[in-house]
Design a protein that fits this description.
Layout: H1 6-13, H2 15-27, E1 34-38, H3 43-54, E2 58-62, H4 70-78, E3 82-83, H5 91-103, E4 108-111, H6 115-120, E5 130-133, H7 136-142, H8 146-149, E6 153-155, H9 160-183, E7 191-195, H10 199-210, E8 214-218, H11 222-230, H12 238-243, E9 247-250, E10 270-274, H13 284-288, E11 292-297, E12 300-304, E13 310-314, H14 332-350, E14 359-362, H15 365-378
Parallel strand pairs: 1-2, 1-4, 2-3, 4-5, 5-6, 6-14, 7-8, 7-9, 9-10, 10-13
Antiparallel strand pairs: 11-12, 12-13
Helix pairs in contact: 1-3, 2-3, 2-14, 3-4, 3-14, 9-10, 9-14, 14-15
């Protein structure tokens, strides 16, 4: 029996990307175009970057903090894609990788968190045509910079397809799966508090409830808090939600959601995990400062507080479904859809079909509809 790598299996499972790749080989929308990317480097991302290369792009890529998988780096390099750096959780090292991508002067940027576009503004070069941003966090970062960017930048996360297919359905599944895999703990009857009730938070809350956990939601937006209540979740105040939780999941995009001051409220054995893009929602440094910290197993740190209570932090506060042991991320199908949006949006920018007025805006409706029709046709 001939062995097949997991990356090969994932690529073969991305059916929509395969169709787009076949088309791109004929139409060559990126001929003579370089694309710089800073995105989680894992098997599904490999499928996307190879599709861009099939369309003629010269791709130069680096990963995100603590989510780069060595196998993905090796595979991309073996297939002619330039990858800068490798796995790192070091902020300064990651900074050098991002700046090396920009030093290549890419014509298009595929960004994840606004890292590349924000740094381009520090030393802009005129040949940048625009690109895409993947996340809510990146959109929030780039919106105040619109006047300075003045380039077409399409926000994938603002597509309704991305919201319901990946954020609501897939993130919830993958975070639940990661919690169970890393901790080997049951969810039945566990009191789970989810911070944030955007699309990702909704998915997390619904999936844990589906796994028979007792779920409460903390949300600062009054309308989303009402939605959580009407969806059947408890919506206690922040302090009560922390004190009563066995498991706390942050899905907000905001820094310092759970910090050192929360230590007074934690119950013994409380498990903390982050499902947001950036590793800042749980203030790990603040919680661990002055306390004994041990690593009992892959992906789990145990912090012993002065009074003997123990807090478990998963994957160092990094995105739990793309860090830690055997990180799998979101489902293949959801990422096939999301990355089809990426490919089509980059194609639109490369062909000049969107102008500077489309600066940090949602995916055009025509692209949403085309991707939706293509995916249903393959179902």
């Amino acid at each position: 029996m001939r062995p097949v790598s997991r990356i090969d299996w994932v690529i073969s499972s991305c059916r929509l990307l395969a169709v787009i790749g076949d088309e791109f080989e004929q139409t060559r929308p990126f001929a003579g175009v370089s694309i710089g990317t800073g995105i989680h480097l894992e098997p599904k991302t490999v499928a996307l970057l190879l599709v861009l290369a099939r369309g003629g792009a010269d791709v130069v890529s680096t990963g995100n903090l603590n989510s780069t998988q060595p196998e993905a780096v090796e595979y991309l390099r073996a297939h002619g894609v330039e990858v800068i750096g490798g796995p790192t959780a070091d902020v300064e090292e990651h900074e050098t990788y991002l700046r090396r991508v920009l030093a290549a002067r890419p014509d298009l940027i595929l960004d994840n968190g606004g890292d590349l576009f924000a740094r381009w503004l520090e030393d802009p070069y005129p040949s940048l045509r625009g690109g895409t941003e993947e996340t809510t966090s990146g959109r929030a970062r780039l919106v105040p910079l619109r006047d300075r960017l003045a380039l077409p930048i399409l926000v994938i996360n603002d597509s309704p397809i991305k919201q319901f297919a990946e954020n609501e359905h897939a993130v919830g599944q993958s975070v639940l799966e990661s919690f169970i895999r890393i901790t080997n703990r049951s969810t039945n009857g566990k009191r789970v508090t989810v911070f944030g009730y955007g699309a990702c938070g909704r998915g997390v809350a619904h999936n844990f409830r589906g796994a028979r956990a007792l779920v409460s939601v903390v949300e600062v937006d009054p309308v989303l808090r009402l939605q959580a209540l009407l969806d059947g979740f408890a919506v206690p105040d922040r302090e009560s939600a922390i004190a009563e939780a066995d498991v706390i999941v942050t899905v907000t995009g905001a820094p310092g959601v759970i910090g050192a001051t929360a230590s007074e409220l934690f119950g013994d054995g409380t498990i903390l995990l982050n499902a947001g893009h950036l590793p800042w929602e749980i203030d790990v440094a603040g919680i661990t400062a002055g306390n004994e910290t041990t690593s009992a197993t892959d992906g789990i740190e145990t912090v012993t507080l002065a009074d003997g209570r123990r807090i478990q932090i998963l994957t160092g506060g990094h995105m739990v479904n793309l860090a830690g042991p055997r990180p799998l991320g979101n489902s293949v199908e959801s990422m096939d859809l999301g990355f089809a949006l990426q490919a089509r949006c980059l194609e639109a920018v490369a062909r000049g079909e969107v102008g500077a007025e489309a600066c940090v805006v949602p995916v055009p409706r025509a692209i949403d509809e085309a991707v939706a029709r293509a995916f249903v046709a393959l179902a």
